[in-house]
Amino acid sequence: MQLMKFGLELGPLAVFFLANNQYDIFTATAAFMVVTVISLILSHIIFKRIPVMPLVTGVFVIVFGSLTLYLQDSLFIKIKPTIVNILFALALGGGLLLGYSLMKTLLGDVIRLTDEGWRKLTIRWAFFFLFLALLNEIVWRNFSDSTWAAFKLFGVMPITMAFMLAQIGLLQKYQIEDDVTDITSK
Predict the structure, then answer these.
(1) How far apart are CA 19 and CA 29, in angstroms?
(2) HSE-up of 90 (CA within 13 Å, CB side)?
(3) Which helix (H) or strand (E) holds 82?
(4) Which residue in 102, 150, 156 sits closest to 132, CA to CA?
(5) SS3 175
(6) How do residues 143-162 score in pLDDT, each as one tens digit?
(7) How far is CA 15 from CA 31, 65, 115, in A?
(8) For 169-179, how does the pLDDT look when each residue is reduced to its tens digit (9 = 90+)?
(9) What is the tens place of the pLDDT at every residue in 4-22?
(10) Distance in angstroms (rounded) separating the CA atoms of residues 151 and 156
(11) Which pLDDT belongs to residue 2?
(12) First and final CA of the chain: distance in angstroms?
């Protein structure tokens, strides 16, 4: 199931990359929009829900992709990752300022951490999203459309995976162990 989720999230980016290499950024944007919608629909059918991040990203793909195609200006699809990453960072940081961890809301069923652990993890992710926004700006402003499209697939994914792996120590340090009752002592 995890592999299927990963495929549904990675699929639209792969199609974008392939279409951009074969045709141009406008054809790639149209394909990206279509495959993103299909991916969201399949997520809903298969998993009976659409994860928050792919849904938010999907809405932005449709809005910024439509602007890109309507105005025939690739700027809009290029700045979409910047805006989405900044919004994620602001949502995480704003939640913390209000005393609320969105990371805990999103992952609390899967990971059990102390409040301090959730706070630190949330701060790290907020800064990571800002880093991705800055990195996107650097790449699209300084490289070709093809390089930027390749970076979205072959750069952002490995960087994100490396960042996630780098959080293992924090997760272990602040993990709440399940209470195990020794039935032999009763």
Answers:
(1) 8
(2) 7
(3) helix 75-97
(4) 156
(5) strand
(6) 999 999 999 989 999 999 99
(7) 7, 14, 39
(8) 999 999 998 75
(9) 888 888 899 999 999 999 9
(10) 6
(11) 75
(12) 40
Please, which residues have CB within 8 angstroms of residue 28's CB and are 6 or more apart in sequence?
15, 16, 17, 18, 19, 20, 149
CB neighbours of 92 closer than 8 A, spacing ≥ 6? 102, 103, 122, 123, 125, 126, 129
Q: Which amino acid is at 109?
A: D
Written as six digits, the tokens of 60 are: 């932005």
Phi, psi of 175 (to 5 degrees): -65, 140
Q: Which residues are within 8 A (CB) of 176 and not within 5 positions of it... i.e. 6 or more apart?
A: 112, 113, 114
What the block records as the tokens of 71 is 């105005």
CA dist., res. 114 & res. 117, Å (int): 5
Q: Where are the domains of the chain?
A: 2-176
Beta-carbon contacts of residue 82 (< 8 Å; ≥ 6 apart): 133, 136, 137
User: What is the average per-residue pLDDT within 114-123?
Assistant: 95
Taking the C-alpha atoms of residue 88 and residue 39, their distance in angstroms, rounded to an integer, is 21
Cα separation, 171 vs 75, in Å, equals 38
How far apart (Å, rounded) are the C-alpha atoms in residues 136 and 131? Answer: 9
Q: What is the CA radius of gyration of the chain?
A: 19
Burial class (CB in 10 A: 0-12, 13-18, 19+), 177: exposed
